Amino acid sequence: MNLDVPPQRREARALLQVPNRADSKRDFAKVASVCDRAPEQWRRACYQGIGTYVSGVTARDPAEGTRLCSLGAPRYRPFCFVGLVKNFIDVTANTDD
Fold first, then answer.
1. Which pLDDT does position 6 carry in this prediction?
2. Which residues have CB under 8 Å from 60's CB, separation 6+?
3. CA angle 77-83-84, nearest 5°?
4. How far apart are CA 31 and CA 23, in angstroms?
5. pLDDT score of 62
6. CA 65 to CA 56: how far, in whole Å?
7. 62 half-sphere exposure, CB direction, 13 A CA radius
8. pLDDT digits 0-9 by tens, 5-36
9. Quick check: 87 and 56 in contact, CB under 8 A?
């Protein structure tokens, strides 16, 4: 663990990884429920992590990604979509574009 990183950043990074660790046979409703129990200030980061994970699991399929992100709490779904789309862009980015 890099102790030069402020504790708040370390916690946010850890919560971005929750979906990878909480995956229960790709039951994303269950994964979202783990994020729903995170401290309020970290739920957005946790949901963003779900979106990143969903992007990889669905091989960047927009329709399936949308369906899976929609399984979470309505208040935090937008952050799942942020993670989903950011990963679409980062994974498919090409320096020639």
1. 47
2. 87, 88, 91, 92
3. 85
4. 6
5. 93
6. 9
7. 4
8. 345 666 666 666 666 665 556 788 988 998 89
9. yes
Q: What is the largest CA-CA distance in the chain?
A: 42
Residue 14's pLDDT is 63
> What is the SS3 assignment for the chain?
CCCCCCHHHHHHHHHHCHHHHHCCCCCHHHHHHHHHCCCHHHHHHHHHHHHHHHHHHCCCCHHHHHHHHCCCCCCCHHHHHHHHHHHHHHHHCCCCC
Checking if the pLDDT of 89 tops 70, the result is: yes
Instruction: Please state which of the ranges 14-18, 24-28, 66-70, 76-80 shows the lowest mean pLDDT.
Output: 14-18
Enter the tokens of residue 10.
């370390």
Alpha carbon distance 36, 39 (integer Å): 8
